[in-house]
Amino acid sequence: MDILESVKMASKTLLANKLRSTLTMLGIIIGNASVIAMVGIGEGAQRFVSGQFESLGTNVLFIVPGNRDAQRTTVDLPKTLVLEDAEAIATQVPTVGAVAPQLHSRELVTYRNRNTYSLIVGTNPDFSVVRSFDAQRGRFITDLDVKRNNQVVTLGVDLAERLFGNQDPVGQQVRIRNISFLVVGVMEEKGSVLGTNYDDSAYIPVTTMASRIIGENSPYGVNLTFISVSAQSEASVDAAQFQITNLLRLRHNITREDDFSVQSQKDVLEIAGTVTSALTLMLAAIAGISLLVGGIGVMNIMLVSVTERTQEIGLRKAIGATQDDILIQFLIEAVILSAAGGVLGTVLGVGGVLLIGVFTPFQAGVSPVAIALAVGVSGGIGIIFGVVPARRAAQLDPIVALRSA
């Protein structure tokens, strides 16, 4: 039998049962749309995380107190980093460009009758260099501010707007933990990075933070939340990581396990990439189950069709149709159902991905690989799950088929 004639006949048969054909395709449509949308979401999450880390600054290293095991299992990290460690890194590690010690605390910030709780970051002038974060108005903290424990503050743009509205904050006085601070600047817009909104934060000298806000100095110096370091170039990141580790091991008299960890931006990004890739694979696998269910639906409907069309099959075989002709006929019907469902599902999935990109921060994109895979799998499902009913139809005895009609 001519293949083109088989396709025409299969199309007419499917169009004659529009509702059943549509319901049969529904599983394939949902499966394809789910796979494309889930892969798009996963890839969007990967791009979002990459953008978050890139916005932290270039060639950045993070020195965090506690070893990796403590960071995974402990909420309250040990206080093993001090301000003197940051100063030693700045003066003794030649591959380092800038060092920004950071001491964090969430405190009440007040201007007249306006109150809000915000993150207070105690740091030094290198913070703006390491984190690529400059003042929009006024200035940032200076070395003199740190040396003299000056009570000055630079506000994030969101915090400044919430406290002052349209008024210029520079030169005004705010109170942090009921201590008066002079506003010397407002930072440019940075956005939220890894859950921390730097636009809603206030920046003061790290020495002032330790002596006036936190009020807790260890016998070894000013405790730090962590240290951010900028290497001189991308090529020197690994060397800086190695030199910082050796320096801190000497300073902390460590002979066995480190009480700190030095993580490069690349290391953290690779970990995040592994997590998001696994998430994408898991989402695609879950969505793929619906494709399997859709294939089973195609097989069930085709089996019902074989039962209903027993007389037709017997008549066609009686007038000369071979087993291969009948087999191809029913396989083509199954493939048409799956392919049509795949195309409609692709359109629905692409539309869903585009909507996700509009209404969420994820930079969701349409993956050509996911589309090709989903459509290919749906077409393959038509062949695989169409074989059983097609073989059953082809093996019917024409005499028995005509008698049972």
UniProtKB/TrEMBL annotation:
It is found in: Cell membrane. GO terms for molecular function: transmembrane transporter activity. Its main location: membrane. Residues 285-398 form the ABC3 transporter permease C-terminal domain. The chain crosses the membrane at residues 21-42, 281-306, 326-359, 365-388. Keywords: Cell membrane, Membrane, Transmembrane, Transmembrane helix. The keyword Transmembrane applies. It comes from the Bacteria. Belongs to the ABC-4 integral membrane protein family. This is ABC transporter permease. It comes from Chroogloeocystis siderophila 5.2 s.c.1.
